Amino acid sequence: MKIATIVIAAALAPLWAQEFKLPNLDRLADKAEESTVVTLDKSMLQLIGKFDKDDPDTRKLIAGLDGIYVRSFEFAAEGDYSPADVEAVRSQIQSPPWSRLVGVRSKRHGDNVDVYFKDAGNGQLGGIVVIAAEPRELTIVNIVGTLDLDRLADLGGDFGIPRLEFSGARREPR
Amino acid sequence: MRSPAIGLLLLASSAAFAGDAAFDRVVHEIESHYGTRHMHIPFMGMADFVVKVAHPEGVTSFKMAFFEDLKSPPDAGAWRELDRFMESLPGELRPIVRVHSRRNGDSVYIFAEPVGKSTRMLLAVFEREEATVMQVKVDAQTLLQSIEDPEHARQTFSSRDR
Predict the structure, then answer these.
(1) Is A4 within the bounds of a domain?
(2) Among residues A18, A93, A99, B149, which is most buried (max CB within 10 A)?
(3) Domain count, chain B
(4) Across the strands, what pairs with A40?
(5) % helix, strand, coil for chain A, step of 5
(6) What is the average per-residue pLDDT within A48-58?
(7) Angle, alpha carbons A143-A146-A150 (nearest 5°)
(8) Is residue A118 assigned to a domain?
(9) Residue B14, pLDDT score
(10) In this model, does residue B13 exceed pLDDT 70?
(11) A–B: how many Cβ contacts below 8 A?
(12) Per-residue model confidence (pLDDT) at position A165
């Protein structure tokens, strides 16, 4: 029995390793003029989806999600944060099953949005990480669960997720 | 026929009391932590009645406690301590939004809990020397608006803007 447990745990270990976890970002919060944390687990998303009768599309979209986690920081001046501050986030999503999308533009401010997705292997996405970096603003979004890439734009503007426009989006070669 | 009706009534009452207990516990914890007492707010009963009838901004009931002269005001340097304190609050309410602002000098916490067909939302706003805790029952739309725009929620409920 014990051996079976160890074998199962060993088999599942790579899957756990693929999960993205938002690291501790207290250092960024300390530097920021304003910091916002949004934590919506599956039960809260189900609640929102259940009662959001005006928007059946959002309800369907939410149904496949296990969680939406947003960390947003506004800084007083340019240069108050550096790319190194985001490295702990990027380092987790640099290798398969994660891929980076390019051709993604922020509607408001241009070209500073990186979207990484996890291939669920069945034609769907198994998770999405968005890093929206502007000179004085940084937003990191972790969407856990399955959804269509086309529907990601529908989530923009809701739940603290930046508005996104996908124009000619393509997967970046590994 | 009577028994199920009484049972349902008791169930509804116990759910309401559970919510009140959560709010009371949060108020008590803040009083203990900051060594202060919440202020009496006149006409709260009447205001609650009006809210129950009119449902302004999707709110169907509310309770509010206001604190002045916090003995250890939660300034920006004490955010982490405040986070730990708020996250350790008892009850079923789950933290969904947390905002710290050096610009305004305040911190906003939004907790939520599903209650039947609506959501119980607890909003706590800590300013430099004051704090406001409000518990409201809201519809999904109001909850979404509060998540998307905590600043609006802060302005709606904060003492500074009353």
Answers:
(1) no
(2) A93
(3) 1
(4) A68
(5) 35, 35, 30
(6) 67
(7) 85
(8) yes
(9) 47
(10) no
(11) 65
(12) 60
The 10s digit of each residue's pLDDT in B40-99 is 766 666 666 665 655 566 666 678 899 988 766 555 567 888 888 888 876 778 899 999
B121 touches chain A (CB under 8 A): no
What range does the domain containing B143 cover?
Answer: 2-161
Total of domains in chain A: 1
User: Given an 8 Å threshold on Cβ–Cβ distance, is B100 in contact with A35?
Assistant: yes
Q: Which of A26, A29, A48 sits opposite B144 (nearest CB)?
A: A48
Domain membership of residue A76 (yes or no) is: yes
Residues 90-129 of A with CB under 8 A from B: none
Instruction: Note whether A29 contacts B: Cβ–Cβ < 8 A.
Output: yes
In terms of Cα–Cα distance, which of A61, A24, A58, A62 is closest to A40?
A62
Residue A112, φ and ψ in degrees, nearest 5: -110, 20
- Specify the 3-state DSSP secondary structure of B92: coil
ipTM value? 0.73
Residue A50 CA to chain centroid, in angstroms?
23
User: Is A55 a member of any domain?
Assistant: yes
Q: What is the pLDDT of residues A91-135, one digit of tens each?
A: 888 888 888 875 555 555 545 788 888 887 777 788 889 898 888
The amino acid sitting at B86 is M
C-alpha B14: how far from chain center: 19
Chain B hits for A34, Cβ within 8 Å:
99-103
Q: Say if the Cβ atoms of B148 and A39 lie within 8 Å.
A: no
